[in-house]
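Field reference: sequence -> structure
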Amino acid sequence: MKVSKGDIFERVFVNEEVHLQIDQEAGSHVKIHVINASFSITVNQLGEGCQTEIYALENLHGEENVIAETHVTHAVGGGRSTQLIKFVLDDNSRGRFIGDLKIAPDAQQTEAHQTNRNLLLSDTAEMRTQPQLEIYADDVKATHGASTGQLDESALFYMQQRGIDKQKARQLLVNAFMKDVINSISDETLREQLLNAVDGVVE
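Structure field:
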């Protein structure tokens, strides 16, 4: 699909598998959220001054298996892109992130950021992450990072010392990890529904 010059395309997909290929014209804005589903999103910035935002939150349990795949190409200059992909994995769940970010030789004055953060809640959960960054222009700001870890034991201990039982403390830390993705949703009603769903786990 094409997002025309100056237009805004914004969508939130919840529990819905997503396959999108988007071409952006000058000055257009794409903002996509995916919650708890596999997805493949390809975005090509073909006009100057485009903005692309891709956010994902995968909260996996049991035997769930999710693949998250992004391909963002800055073909021309002056564009911005942000990717924030988060996985929370419990039980025997499996996750995989493939992130491909390209900045073409003519895409000067581009700003691009790709971040993948993963939280493992069990010894049998598994996460594979494959960030790829290709930069062929020299006047750019570009970052990428990926990390996979477990809950902060010192934070858990601190909360328990203040009368919060271990299970609730654990869930509060998980909720805090997830909320920045939800907070970036523009639709206030949907954002509040999802935040309430997350907070309801510890009530």
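Note: The chain has two domains: 2-150, 151-203.
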